[in-house]
Amino acid sequence: MKFTPSKIPDVVIIEPKVFGDQRGFFMETWSTRDFTEAGLDLNFVQDNHSGSTQGILRGLHYQIQNPQGKLVRVVRGEVYDVAVDMRRSSPTYGESVGVILSEQNRRMLWVPPGFAHGFYVTSEHAEFVYKCTDLYAPEHERSLLWNDPDLNIDWPVAADVAPTLSEKDINGTPFKQADSYP
């Protein structure tokens, strides 16, 4: 696997080795040894899988207590995946990373605890899978306002088509008012 720090070094783009022939392909998506050697000594406790259609935007979510690190990837379709640094003590506090994840590029993204996370579906349909380092705790979940001008995220949303959002994402909190980590 190839591990590449993003512009926020704690957020890491991971490219697995893919082996293929006329029968199809094989790739390893998780190896304790490889991740530990790359400086990511992780313990996952929950796996999630979601399906969404084009134009759906999920996020930006985080848990203020029981923060979750997420190893995310797309197994069908394509998404624009975003992580926002919510750690006040970080030199990259309030900055974001955006990466295309798709079934074609097979990239994964490590989003550490302390980050808000979300994605926008750019293909007709997408299936998104992720491993979490802590359990879902809805009472601690927060949602940032996805289009907050202070975040200045360049979502690949068509100018004339609003994304489809959940109620909690429609009512997301602006960054300057949002709970953050120390």
Written overview of the protein:
- With 182 residues, this protein is mostly beta strands.
- The protein has one domain (44-177): Jelly Rolls.
- 5% of the residues lie in helices and 41% in strands.
- The strands form three sheets. It has a six-stranded antiparallel β-sheet, with no helix packed on it. It has a five-stranded antiparallel β-sheet with strand order 9-8-11-6-13, with no helix packed on it.
Please name the CATH architecture: Sandwich
Q: How many strands in all? A: 13
Q: What is the percentage of strand-forming residues?
A: 35-45%
Order of helices and strands: EEEEHEEEEEEEEEH
Please identify the top-level CATH class: Mainly Beta
**Unreliable stretches, pLDDT < 50, 5 or more residues?**
none
Radius of gyration: 16 Å
- Give the overall form: globular
Kindly report the spatial arrangement of strands forming the biggest sheet. 1-2-10-7-12-5
What's the CATH H-level superfamily name?
Jelly Rolls
Number of helices: 2
Domain count? 1
Helix content: under 10%
Biggest β-sheet, characterized? 6 strands, antiparallel
| CATH topology-level fold name | Jelly Rolls
User: Pairing-aware structural class of the strands and helices?
Assistant: mainly beta
